Amino acid sequence: MARKPLLTIVFGLVFALLAAVLVEHLYEPKSGLGNLLWRFELGAYGVRLSTRASRFRDDIVIVAVDDESLQQLGVWPWPRGLHAQLLDRLNEAGARLIGLDMLFSDLSGSLQSVDPATGQLSLQPAVSEGDEALAGALKRYPRVVLAGQITNDLTTRGEQVASGVSSVAFPHELFAPSEDRIGLTNIPRDLDSVVRRAWLTLSHQDEPYYTLPVALAAAQMKRTPAAVAAETLRLGYAGHPFLGGNSILVNFCGPAGTFKRVPYYQVLAGLTPPETFRGKIVLGLSHSSQGTGSHGTPSATSVWLAQASSMVSVMPISSSSSSTSLT
Q1: CB-based contact 189:67 (threshold 8 Å)
Q2: CB 265, CB 324: distance < 8 Å
């Protein structure tokens, strides 16, 4: 009879040891087993999302540079004056906050051989009328968050990263709002190349920079991006260190159609009723930010859904907020 309790203890110890090994590999994978376990865990997250009901959000509206808009307005990138017109339209409609996932890191005028200010030779583009129009619109409507981006060029040796060079692109000084109104649009991909997470911060030369969802949430809540990111981390939403740290699992609200999406050209043409945007948070997403293929998501195949859902994940937004213009 004494052997039965002994076997129970042995089996318990073996089970505890196996559990500890699994936890170790999940927390800090060092082998193929750890990667395999994480693939199962990440896949299970997608299954959990697919089994719950979708939650349509009427407080966020997507203005999309889609195929229809490209047919109507021409190839991308478009003249900056069109973006100025978009801001005018959205302000007139009473939009509450705007995020533009479009990079304005350079001027769009023609190349000039002589800088008129200094008389020196210059290969920098001149300021175009569209640049001036966009800069003016951004000054009139300060509740606009612009995009930035960090790029990494990595050199590998075998399976190890030998060296890497990173660079950061921010809006040109002509358009530059305050630092609180710039957000990085980088989106992480997991081991299986699926987008499930959103960065809170990224670093460049030891300087932290906040992402578009954090910057938008901060502008909406009238707090600093640092405070929003810190609160999100404090609440335990941060991703696992192996998955990059300083990231959250995106709480996808549902598949395509969860957020109202309006073609860009329809807004410019006045074909969209003003009440569509009144009191809403509007995300203007470029053609490149809606890429498909390698940027799959658990509940849809477009990355704009990840950007919109990321903001919801960082900040629950009340759909009953009052209408407020951008001034």
Answers
A1: no
A2: no
